[in-house]
Design a protein that fits this description.
Layout: H1 8-16, H2 25-37, H3 41-46, H4 54-68, H5 73-77, E1 79-82, E2 85-88, H6 101-110, E3 118-122, H7 128-136, E4 141-146, H8 149-161, E5 166-170, E6 183-188, H9 221-233, E7 234-243, H10 249-259, E8 262-268, E9 274-280
Parallel strand pairs: 3-4, 3-6, 4-5, 6-7
Antiparallel strand pairs: 1-2, 7-9, 8-9
Helix pairs in contact: 1-2, 2-4, 6-7, 9-10
């Protein structure tokens, strides 16, 4: 509990001393306080002795209690940083994570910068992958799918906020798409956690939408569907890139090989875990 007539410095120190699920409580304190004050973090350093009003203190206390209960700070603040973007984030969508930026990096490295491409982001969620690519490759034509109207609405909102045009399709994976579409690049960060994985009861995962996390008994149901249909929806020479669990690379390589994908490769994340697997459709 913060004291009445607390200063900015006292308010941030109070949260720093509390036990929170995050690894950087001082940063979280500053972010929560900035949300109340509607000021950038630089303001806190410039005016540490400014006294909070009673209304500001009460609002800050409310955010503190929500965070202490484990609610992800991205949901409390309603936004999350990804790549160079700030994305609107609600409990309807998965919180964009730094490891998914590797998927963006690989896509950028494997494709020509000045070429107009048709690019598909399956299960887009907040739109993070597609919008990051659009920022870097304005010539690319982005297509995104998702299974719920609410989620697709968030992706559309984020696209408008960043002045990006995306083609949206409501439905499950490839079933959402018109039959005639073919793509140069297909990407996805699909659900890949097994239904009874104990991690689902820990940290932010408790609060995130289960349909964006869980994919059957072994966590591979979504990846199977995506791999099975990828050749039909890729142009000759097209590439598919998939994020997956740290222990699923062998299974995903096998699924892609069965689908007819060639030149299959797996990339490691910064922690040394096999995180992204992809390959190409053979040229005619």
């Amino acid at each position: 509990m913060i004291c009445l007539q607390a200063t900015i410095l006292q308010a941030t120190q109070t949260l720093t001393d509390c036990r929170l699920p995050g690894s950087n409580p001082r940063l979280e304190a500053e972010l929560l306080l900035c949300a109340i004050l509607k000021r950038p973090r630089s303001y806190l350093a410039a005016w540490p002795e400014q006294t909070l009003t009673s209304i500001q203190e009460a609002a800050y206390q409310n955010l503190l209690q929500r965070r202490q209960c484990g609610e992800p700070i991205a949901y409390i603040l309603g936004c999350q940083e990804f790549w160079t973007l700030t994305l609107h984030t609600t409990p309807e969508v998965l919180i964009p994570r730094p490891e998914t930026e590797l998927l963006v990096e690989i896509a950028l490295q494997t494709q020509l910068a000045n070429t107009a491409l048709e690019v598909l982001d399956l299960g887009t969620g907040s739109g993070a992958i597609a919008l990051a690519l659009a920022q870097e490759r304005p010539l690319w034509n982005l297509h995104v799918t998702d299974i719920t109207p609410a989620t697709l609405g968030i992706a559309t909102h984020n696209a408008k906020q960043h002045n990006v045009l995306v083609n949206t399709y409501l439905g499950s994976w490839y079933a959402a798409l018109p039959d005639h579409l073919r793509f140069d690049v297909i990407l996805s960060n699909p659900p890949y956690i097994a239904a009874h994985d104990p991690h689902l009861m820990q940290g932010d995962l408790v609060w995130e939408p289960q349909q964006a996390l869980v994919a059957g008994v072994d966590g591979l149901d979504a990846l199977r569907t995506i791999c099975l249909g990828c050749v039909k929806h890729l142009k000759p020479g097209g590439i598919i890139l998939l994020e997956h669990g740290y222990d699923q690379a062998i299974a995903v390589r096998h699924l892609l090989q069965q689908a007819g994908i060639i030149n299959i490769q797996t990339w490691q994340d910064l922690s040394g875990h096999e995180r992204i697997t992809g390959g190409y459709v053979q040229l005619d």
